UniProtKB/TrEMBL annotation:
GO terms for cellular component: plasma membrane. SUPFAM superfamilies: EGF/Laminin, Protein kinase-like (PK-like). It comes from Lolium multiflorum. The keyword Glycoprotein applies. This is Protein kinase domain-containing protein. The lineage of its organism: Eukaryota, Viridiplantae, Streptophyta, Embryophyta, Tracheophyta. The keyword Transmembrane helix applies. The chain crosses the membrane at residues 362-382.
Amino acid sequence: MGSSSMWMRLMLPALLVAAMEAPVAATLTLTPGCVDRCGNVSIPYPFGIGKDGGNDCFRKGFEISCVNNSVPVMAGTGTSPNLRVLNLSLSPHPMVRVMLPVAWQCFNATGTQIGTFDGGVGVNPEGVYRLSSDLNQLFILGCNTFAYIESGVSPPGSRYNYQVYTGCVAYANDAGRPQDDACNGVGCCSVGIPPGLTDNVVNFRNTPTWSHADQEFCPCDYAFIVDKGYYNFKKDDLLHMDVNRTSMPMSLDWAIRENGSLTCAAAASSPGYACKSVHSECFNSKNGPGYICNCTKGYEGNPYVVNGCTDIDECARPENYSCRGECKNIDGDYKCDCRAGYTSPNPYTESCNPKFPLPAQISIGVVGGILLLAFLSFVIIIRKERRMRHELYRKNGGPTLEKASIIKLFKKNDLTQILKSSNIIGKGGFGEVYKGLVDGVPVAVKKPISGNHMESSQFANEVIIQSKVIHKNIVRLIGCCLEVDTPMLVYEFISQGSMDDILHGGEKKPLGLDARINILAEAAQGLAYMHSQANTVILHGDVKPANILLDDKFVPKISDFGISRLIARDNEHAASIIGDRTYMDPVYMQSGLLTAKSDVYSFGVVILELISRKKATHRDNNTLVNSFLENHKKGKKSTELFDTEIAEGAEDLLQNLAELAIKCLELEVDQRPTMTEVAEQLVAFTRTHQV
Ligand SMILES: *[C@@H]1O[C@H](CO)[C@@H](O)[C@H](O)[C@H]1NC(C)=O
Ligand SMILES: *[C@@H]1O[C@H](CO)[C@@H](O)[C@H](O)[C@H]1NC(C)=O
Ligand SMILES: *[C@@H]1O[C@H](CO)[C@@H](O)[C@H](O)[C@H]1NC(C)=O
Ligand SMILES: *[C@@H]1O[C@H](CO)[C@@H](O)[C@H](O)[C@H]1NC(C)=O
Ligand SMILES: *[C@@H]1O[C@H](CO)[C@@H](O)[C@H](O)[C@H]1NC(C)=O
Ligand SMILES: *[C@@H]1O[C@H](CO)[C@@H](O)[C@H](O)[C@H]1NC(C)=O
Ligand SMILES: *[C@@H]1O[C@H](CO)[C@@H](O)[C@H](O)[C@H]1NC(C)=O
Ligand SMILES: *[C@@H]1O[C@H](CO)[C@@H](O)[C@H](O)[C@H]1NC(C)=O
């Protein structure tokens, strides 16, 4: 998923414009100052860590502590085996995965209990959780063992003491009976979890009926709740389970359950109503009382914060929102139509075909014998195809490129092996990217959908620029194929995907401080190189994390030159302003005059994203950039914005980086440093840091 989105962005301008509104990560905190992750786990509100400006970042009952700045645990749970959080999610189901310790008891040969732990960790300090009945299972291991879990004290006068019970019996006569992978009552039993369970404390039955004397082959009993499908019974576990180190992943359902656990109907008019976003809706909880919130159809994000649900750009995700024609995003929905001259019974699912005049088809059928016609068509098609290929080759500038350029011109047949659907690594409404090998070298082939013509001037731009710049921090264009309707481009394959994916992708990868400074320094060198070309200054025009790819050693490579300009030729003025507004120089936006300092501005935003690991987006008034600028104006350090993964002990360096970024963001263009100066400064930081 991560790398496919990067390859989509590597594709040409048409796609770029559509992808401008990149999907907002579903992680949103209460205020921008609240930390949005701990270690690998993103922490969306109502969950939260600590305070921002004196106010809690979490809703009551949803506090997370970030131990050692890297391990999230549920605040208020048992102290010594504190409940570690693996994952939090708001949608599609409100859920928390935690690591639960195993409950156990052990006996000596005469059947005296020599140790026990009931598994209790206070899983539910504020009552917001239910042990998920859909996702979990209770396992009990032992050879003469009955154990169960109960929860929810019944009102006086009820038939049973508790409202919910679950448990089972595990039994085995001798060591030979239990079998691996068979949790069928022999040495191991397993049972489902009823809805409403609030606790995991295990009761082992220890009456004489359940004696453990003479059971050296099975000295301990174990009991745990675990995600379905995670645990597989092994008979050795009866002897060797290391209870002090074993814990099991378990899923908890959560809901808003304060003040007598209101339903949606009652909560909507109460002061603490949790569904804050305009585009959110309320559902009564399915496991226990209370309610949950969801973004409405066509929106995604965080329904629990104001403006948290944002429009989904369906057109940027063709794998989930089909459209075989031209896709247009609208607020909360999208439209799909065939372009002029084409038709389809349902452009959402069926392809658009040209509107052939019917009479022509009929007359052909009447005149020709079918066989003859087929034969003739065959011959004609073959000749036409050959002629067309040649014509396209000429039209797309083949002869010129042949003479002038050092890139390779591929024949259509050279690439047919690669252009198979199993090789697709990225796909958008505007075309596909394939991964393949050319002469043993991994490459990425961009193939725009035919009929969706890239402007020929932009194509030429990309080819000419790319063949001029050869630098280790710029993605290398290996060649192109012109014998097709819409020319295809062949690039070196960059393994790690884009900086954007690495920073904000679904599964955020750790990225150390050294690596980050190095990425910035080298990316700046790549851009500085472009800006300082001898004869023609090359401007990128769309510098952003999605256009900085990283190879397997995290060396950055600038990509996507579809809207770059050779200013010596183009006289600087853009006919229309394209690019990503989040990173766009406001001066350029106003004047339409692209300068080297516009790239410097965009790079400033890139620096801020890399040191904060927060996504800049113009749709929230560019909170990220503004937060840094405000701190700067007040003469305050921006410590609270730094990514906690790298901040420790490096605040001064990060502050220096932030200051450099702020210089790049100056509205007075002349005050901004040049790209070369930025690169030099960053290289200096690399040195000082590593010494
Ligand atoms: C982050 O996740 C990776 C892979 O899932 C894991 O190996 C690593 O230990 C995790 N890091 C932290 C700090 O939890
Ligand atoms: C936090 O760090 C301390 C010292 O390095 C270590 O003893 C402790 O186990 C860590 N806690 C967690 C939850 O990783
Ligand atoms: C966390 O949960 C989300 C949503 O259910 C899922 O996509 C993601 O893979 C999970 N991550 C981990 C590390 O389990
Ligand atoms: C909430 O939204 C998600 C994604 O749109 C959907 O999968 C889920 O079923 C919704 N939940 C409810 C309770 O409707
Ligand atoms: C088991 O423990 C009991 C109580 O400490 C003791 O009396 C008995 O001798 C022990 N049995 C063995 C076999 O160690
Ligand atoms: C588990 O820890 C307890 C106390 O911390 C210790 O007495 C016991 O021997 C340990 N058990 C194992 C199997 O390591
Ligand atoms: C619960 O009640 C308290 C006091 O009446 C009120 O301040 C709070 O906002 C209420 N919370 C919700 C979720 O209604
Ligand atoms: C979106 O598409 C991806 C890739 O085909 C798929 O894995 C995922 O489940 C889809 N999501 C939804 C909500 O349909």
